[in-house]
Amino acid sequence: MLAIIGRPNVGKSTLFNRLVGKKLALVDDRPGVTRDRREGEAELIGMKFRVMDTAGYEDDDPASLPGRMRAQTEAAVAGADAALFVFDARAGLNPLDEEIARWLRTSDTPIILVANKAEGKAGDAGINEAYALGLGDPIQLSAEHGEGMVELFDAMRPHLEDNFDPGEPLEALGDDEQGPLKLAIVGRPNAGKSTLINRILGEERLITGPEAGITRDSISIDWLWEHDGQSREVRLIDTAGMRKRARVQDKLEKLSVADALHSIDFAEVVVLLLDSTKGLELQDLKIADRVLEEGRALVIALNKWDVAEDGSKLYQGVRAALEEGLAQVKGVPLLTLSGATGKGIDTLLAAAFETRDAWSKRITTGQLNRWLERALEANPPPAPKGKRIKLRYATQANTRPPSFVVFGTRVDELPESYRRYLINGLRRELGLGAVPVRLTLRAPKNPFDKKSGD
């Protein structure tokens, strides 16, 4: 359990909504909107956990309403695995922030200091002040725009990873209900994203034209794919074109790009649409890399194939560039289609559903450990300084994306090359294909040794 605390109106509920992926908590500029503790199932970059939004901490009589709200907040912190102490970086610290910090320093609960509203440079002074609270380095983020979430994930992970106990039934950790395929279409401006979606829907649902950047908001449309006598639900998400960051100057375009990135976070499969008349550019690789970092399944499609020149040479060139530029995931599906004529659309949707199946796959513990045994026999771990690294067993911690934990001794000395060997083996032998795979190495805790080593 993760608790979010702080004085009123610092953005706690906005951060809560960001983590749960829904607007469950009311958000308003007026302080004191949240009164009761609100819990939700959250996910951040593939790590799932429960999160609790709390009332703004106020210094009032215990019998008053603010006082009773404060008691609820104190109870939430006491029962949490970790707590996020949120302050407003733009407003800076005030005496109530300092009082909350004094209370938290006496708590046994790990505290992560969060500087919210830190976009731009307006929060720099408040961030510098925060070091005096004695709660470590502040994590700089914008809950409203989704900036800084990777850094927040890194800070939270040591405190929440242990929630996945391999001795407990793992089925409860994954969400096997597929529901509609959440399919986001992303790419550079004028790659034909809106035209493609209009062709899929069979109607002019979205505005299109030769001008780049027509789409500003991410538009979500529910649709039924009728194919081979089956009806399958799809939620199509059109996004704004994403140019190189240095070229994005207009405030509205910045918000549009932020919205597109936000859509990636909540998609299951992301289609990166390339313009066949322009080929693959560095910006395309950056977008693809962002999708994979967020743990989303990726499919790449060459659009405008009906007007492409020397298609075979173009396809082979793009494939080679992807293999080199996306070294962390080999074999990402690369398809050709035409949003103008509709050719290749059914193939694209079939590939998207197949990719989601791999992304959602759960592997039994027995099957996983038989694979690990074969992998170790074929290529044993190295022995730094003559001491063998022992990998004992593996378990699947989560799906969407597939996430695994391998337990052993001296795992901190295992080279990155061997870790990649294990990930590639998981993909190849257990049918995970070219989806992101998370692999955590962990030494089992020894109750008789505080070093938690061998």
From TrEMBL:
Q: Name one GO molecular function term.
A: GTP binding
Q: Which residues bind GTP 2?
A: 187-194, 238-242, 303-306
- Positions contributing to GTP 1 binding: 6-13, 53-57, 116-119
Q: Which InterPro entries match?
A: G_ENGA, GTP-bd, GTPase_Der, KH_dom-like, KH_dom-like_a/b, P-loop_NTPase, Small_GTP-bd
Q: Which CDD domains match?
A: EngA1, EngA2
The Gene Ontology biological process annotation of the record reads: ribosome biogenesis
Boundaries of every EngA-type G domain copy: 1-164, 181-360
Say yes or no: keyword Ligase present.
Answer: no
Keywords of the record? GTP-binding, Nucleotide-binding, Repeat, Ribosome biogenesis
Q: Name one Pfam family in it.
A: MMR_HSR1
Describe the family membership recorded for this protein in Swiss-Prot or TrEMBL.
Belongs to the TRAFAC class TrmE-Era-EngA-EngB-Septin-like GTPase superfamily. EngA (Der) GTPase family.
Function text: GTPase that plays an essential role in the late steps of ribosome biogenesis.
Quaternary state and interactors: Associates with the 50S ribosomal subunit.
Q: Which PANTHER family match?
A: GTPASE DER
Quote the protein name from its UniProt record: GTPase Der
Species assigned in the record: Flavisphingopyxis soli
